[in-house]
């Protein structure tokens, strides 16, 4: 779909001057962008975008100014407060400002902080949700975050806090007891500490784990391992951030739901990967 293709008939929101729309760009694949996000791109005067936003998405806003505001761990980047105040400045200049963030702006994306600053400065906002990498990225890897035979709960956690360290506020013992599946964002840097905390909290060393990097893009890679072997296998794999890490038996479903591999002609590895440990059916 190019920038001239009309959107389906709908009463589309009008992007007014002086507004900021906080918008999720999805996990990577431009096709996972929402129609509301595309509508925003076509009306924006300025697009302030993050590091993981694909160039093809920016190409849908050819008439807008594109301002990079990416934040990547371990690399020089703008301070969050400076980004937020820049949005205020642009809106007060009468611009239609699209703040385009990878995934969903409210899922470990600092969208709440930016929105709060804008509202405090009297700038009107609109929120456009996006598909979070913790759901969409795992789906592209053939891993459902919920499955009736596996889990009735899933917990999403971040692998680092505001200081860049592993979050000290997380109660790993409670998370281990309370959630059958754990999805970790931005966890590679502190994976030794995180895996150790989960093992100390009682998660089994043989529990399945998947690490998905560059999720939903042509460069996507998936490491399947176990919690006990995670640190060593990840180091040996050479995989680098950004990554989503999934801990739990739902990872086994990749053996039957790896749809990208099947599209190339590869057969499913196991049609019933959860059969081990399942109670025997009564006669």
Automatic annotation (TrEMBL):
Pathway: Cofactor biosynthesis; adenosylcobalamin biosynthesis; precorrin-2 from uroporphyrinogen III: step 1/1; Porphyrin-containing compound metabolism; siroheme biosynthesis; precorrin-2 from uroporphyrinogen III: step 1/1
EC number(s) per entry: 2.1.1.107
GO molecular function: uroporphyrin-III C-methyltransferase activity
PROSITE patterns tied to this protein: SUMT_2 (PS00840)
EC supergroup of this enzyme: transferase
Biological process annotations from GO: cobalamin biosynthetic process; methylation; siroheme biosynthetic process
Annotated TM spans: none
InterPro entries per the UniProt record, alphabetical: 4pyrrol_Mease, 4pyrrol_Methylase_sf, 4pyrrole_Mease_sub1, 4pyrrole_Mease_sub2, CobA/CysG_C, Siro_Cobalamin_biosynth, Uropor_MeTrfase_CS
Domain spans labelled Tetrapyrrole methylase: 20-230
Record key words, sorted: Cobalamin biosynthesis, Methyltransferase, Porphyrin biosynthesis, S-adenosyl-L-methionine, Transferase
Family as reported in the entry's similarity comment: Belongs to the precorrin methyltransferase family.
UniProt name for this protein: uroporphyrinogen-III C-methyltransferase
């Amino acid at each position: 779909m190019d920038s001239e293709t009309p959107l389906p008939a709908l009463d589309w929101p009008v992007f007014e001057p002086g507004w900021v729309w906080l918008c999720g760009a999805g996990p990577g694949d431009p096709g996972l962008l929402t129609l509301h996000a595309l509508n925003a791109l076509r009306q924006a005067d300025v697009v302030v975008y993050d590091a993981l936003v694909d160039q093809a998405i920016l190409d849908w806003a050819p008439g807008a100014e594109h301002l990079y505001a990416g934040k990547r761990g371990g690399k020089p980047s703008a301070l969050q407060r400076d980004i937020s105040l820049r949005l205020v400045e642009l809106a007060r200049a009468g611009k239609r400002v699209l703040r385009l963030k990878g995934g969903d702006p409210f899922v470990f994306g600092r969208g709440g902080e930016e929105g709060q600053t804008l509202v405090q400065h009297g700038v009107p906002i609109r929120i456009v949700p996006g598909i979070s990498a913790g759901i969409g990225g795992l789906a592209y890897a053939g891993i459902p975050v919920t499955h009736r035979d596996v889990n009735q709960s899933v917990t999403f956690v971040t692998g680092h806090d505001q200081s860049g360290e592993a979050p000290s506020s997380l109660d790993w013992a409670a998370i281990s007891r309370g959630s059958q599946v754990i999805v970790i964002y931005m966890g590679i840097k502190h994976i030794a500490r995180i895996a150790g905390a989960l093992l100390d909290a009682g998660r089994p060393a043989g529990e399945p784990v998947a690490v998905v990097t560059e999720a939903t893009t042509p460069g996507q890679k998936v490491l399947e391992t176990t919690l006990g072997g995670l640190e060593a296998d990840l180091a040996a794999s050479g995989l680098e951030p950004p990554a989503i890490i999934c801990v739990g038996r739902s990872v086994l479903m990749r053996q039957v739901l790896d749809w990208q591999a099947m599209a190339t002609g590869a057969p499913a590895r196991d049609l019933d990967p959860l059969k081990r440990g399942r109670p025997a059916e009564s006669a």
